[in-house]
User: What shape does this take?
Amino acid sequence: MRKNQTDPSLKECMIEALRSVISGVSGSNADALMTAMESLDDILAKSRDRLPPQLCHFLENRSYQKALTFLENTDG
Assistant: This one.
């Protein structure tokens, strides 16, 4: 798989976690927010070499809405 593409199952995990973070922030659900953020940190740590650089940048900077938009609108 090319570096500018993300494994489909990993992509779905990230999308789910990103949506949880975004809804956790807007809904003030601290537990869901922390769980989702930890999941994203873990994915980034374990899969950085298989993720597109721009997606890594968004996740490192906790730009979760940008990361979600990137995943939903690209092959990334």
Summary: The two ends are 11 Å apart (CA to CA). The chain has a mean pLDDT of 85. Residues 8-27 form the longest helix (20 residues).
